[in-house]
Specification:
The protein starts with a strand and ends in an 8-residue tail after the last helix. Helix content is 37%, strand content 5%. The chain is globular, with a radius of gyration of 17 Å. The protein contains eight helices and four strands, in the order βααβααβαβααα. With 204 residues, it is mainly alpha-helical. The longest helix has 16 residues, at 87-102.
């Protein structure tokens, strides 16, 4: 999450290779750039779905399976419903949704497939991911965990008893509450809306 500050000598091609994307995706994520061969030092560049600069701890759970089911439509009950993604990450999402529902978050505001999509783009399902390259990191607040929350955002949105930013369920809880509070629902996160329009993912 955040922006990359273009440095002298950077090119879109070099940055695309560095961040495991391509020039086309960089152009989609940065509509202010009209010429792929013309970028300016000091300008801000959004890196869609950047993952290679995450630093992972060797301890703790690893999320590796983001497979799973069809999209869940707006559910009306207070418990998790529909198809939650299979695997470890899906289990974490299901547990987090159960606790969020108990705390009063409506099920139709936290589509599990959309939560999984955010996790996929933000951390590749690694609960120990730390982003050390963006403006948040430069300010001393690196994005951490499955949903890549910074500590102040996590602290403002966590539930009582879920105080560990590196705990996958706690991190999902805080990330979902933040998304619902800021955007109205997880499905309305700008990065997901961009994907539905065929554009590159942008951090929330």
């Amino acid at each position: 999450m955040g922006n990359y500050s273009i440095k002298a000598g950077d090119t879109l091609n070099k940055l695309a290779q560095r961040y495991h994307t391509n020039v086309g995706e960089l152009m989609k994520a940065n509509p202010q750039i009209k010429d792929a061969n013309l970028i300016y030092s000091g300008a801000k560049l959004n890196i869609p779905g950047s993952k290679d600069e995450f630093v992972s701890s060797t301890s703790g759970p690893k999320g590796v399976n983001l497979d799973g089911g069809a999209s869940t439509k707006g559910a009306q009950s207070s418990a998790p419903v529909g198809n939650v993604p299979q695997g470890q990450v899906g289990d974490w999402i299901k547990e987090a949704m159960t606790k969020l529902s108990a705390a009063g978050v409506p099920a139709d505001k936290m589509n599990p497939q959309d939560i999984a999509s955010i996790i996929h783009h933000e951390s590749s399902g690694n609960p120990n991911a730390i982003n050390l390259w963006d403006s948040n990191a430069a300010a001393g607040h690196p994005s951490i965990g499955l949903m890549q929350t910074i500590q102040p955002t996590f602290d403002a949105n966590k539930l009582p008893g879920h105080d560990n930013i590196r705990n996958p369920v706690d991190n999902i809880i805080a990330g979902v509450r933040y998304a619902v509070e800021r955007y109205g629902s997880v499905s309305d996160v700008p990065g997901l809306k961009a994907l539905r329009q065929g554009q590159g993912y942008v951090g929330y």
